[in-house]
């Protein structure tokens, strides 16, 4: 009997081991697949990137590739800080919605409520139109004259003055056209309504509240711990071009890390900054005047990946590219930050999210 009992215990232990082993093996297999994908893009002696994948808010993959600084041959590490470009728009949109919840503005407010002299040409341009890229206002980044001011430090009103007299591309609500001017105006509205600068509002109401301690409005002069430097590739690698960070402003001037961006995604998912009914507005797939869907909410693209809902947004600014993907049904978040605008993480981040779905 003792022999049978001991043998039975042995079998149970073996069963427990082999039941656990496939899970560990799958995790190792996923790591190996992601490593192989990223190592084929980011070489050890070139600009690099950091990627993170989380399921249910818990990182399952977090690695750095390549170099954070080519001149000094400093390896990239997962704590590196990147300019995130247009992923800034998520923070701008949520800031507007926070002020809406405070009763300080409404989504159907016309922009002339905040900028009385804005030339709307008799059209009704609302905060909602700005958030959804359906305002028809000319995007200043498409203007050839931008080169004349790209190195100048402008106030938000000076930047708005730069583009406000341009002809509109279409009537409000008639079309969807990605628009940096719209998000500049939203940043200025935040300043008018809150009494803070855009940078201070985001710092106090988002970064500090969520303990996103490595995130901030970008700066060329400030010494920023763990900053990754940005590059272009024109045959050989070159240092990024200089542009005044007053120009991307609330459409693209924030910096962050993969860890802080995971905190951000968790905060939105768990309604830490907005009421659930307001968060639902963020991820609504809005329509044009004719009823056509635009595949955009407030600061996020509303798409699908392998048949599952997908909320995503990328960013591009001199020397940097970024991409974040969130699959709400699977609760998978994937984020990629790159320090060369020659290496877009967009497709890679989607592919990594697909791999995590398979897991």
From TrEMBL:
**SUPFAM superfamilies per UniProt:** beta-lactamase/transpeptidase-like
Keyword field contains Signal = yes
**Protein name listed in UniProt:** CubicO group peptidase (Beta-lactamase class C family)
Q: Which domain of life is it from?
A: Bacteria
Keyword Secreted assigned: no
Q: Which residues form the Beta-lactamase-related domain?
A: 46-341
- The signal peptide, as residue positions, is 1-27
Keywords from the UniProt entry: Signal
């Amino acid at each position: 009997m003792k022999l049978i009992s001991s043998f039975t215990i042995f079998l149970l232990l073996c069963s427990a081991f082999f039941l656990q082993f496939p899970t560990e093996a799958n995790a190792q297999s996923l790591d190996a697949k992601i490593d192989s994908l990223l190592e084929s893009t980011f070489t050890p002696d070139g600009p690099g990137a950091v990627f993170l994948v989380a399921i249910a808010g818990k990182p399952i993959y977090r690695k750095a590739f390549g170099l954070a600084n080519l001149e000094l041959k400093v390896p990239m590490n997962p704590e590196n800080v990147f300019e995130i470009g247009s992923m800034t728009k998520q923070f701008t949109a949520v800031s507007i919605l926070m002020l809406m919840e405070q009763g300080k503005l409404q989504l159907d407010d016309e922009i002339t409520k905040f900028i009385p002299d804005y030339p709307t040409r008799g059209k009704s341009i609302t905060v909602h139109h700005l958030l959804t890229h359906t305002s028809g206002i000319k995007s200043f980044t498409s203007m050839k004259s931008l080169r004349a001011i790209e190195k100048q430090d402008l106030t938000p009103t000076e930047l708005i003055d730069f583009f406000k007299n341009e002809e509109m591309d279409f009537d409000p609500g008639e079309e969807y056209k990605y628009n940096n001017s719209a998000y500049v105006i939203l940043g200025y509205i935040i300043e008018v309504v809150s009494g803070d600068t855009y940078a201070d509002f985001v710092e106090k109401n988002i970064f500090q509240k969520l303990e996103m301690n490595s995130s901030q409005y970008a700066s060329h002069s400030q010494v920023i711990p763990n900053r990754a430097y940005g590059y272009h590739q024109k045959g050989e690698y070159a240092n990024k071009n200089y542009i005044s960070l007053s120009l991307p402003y609330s459409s693209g001037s924030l910096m962050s890390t993969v860890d802080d961006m995971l905190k951000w995604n968790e905060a939105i998912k768990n309604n830490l900054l907005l009421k659930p009914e307001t968060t639902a507005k963020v991820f609504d797939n809005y329509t044009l005047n004719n009823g056509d869907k635009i595949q955009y909410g407030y600061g996020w693209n509303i798409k699908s990946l392998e048949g599952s809902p997908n909320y995503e947004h990328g960013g591009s600014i001199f020397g940097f590219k970024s991409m974040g993907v969130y699959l709400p049904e699977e609760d998978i978040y994937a984020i990629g930050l790159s320090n060369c605008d020659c290496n877009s993480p967009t497709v890679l981040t989607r592919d990594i999210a697909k791999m995590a779905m398979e897991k």
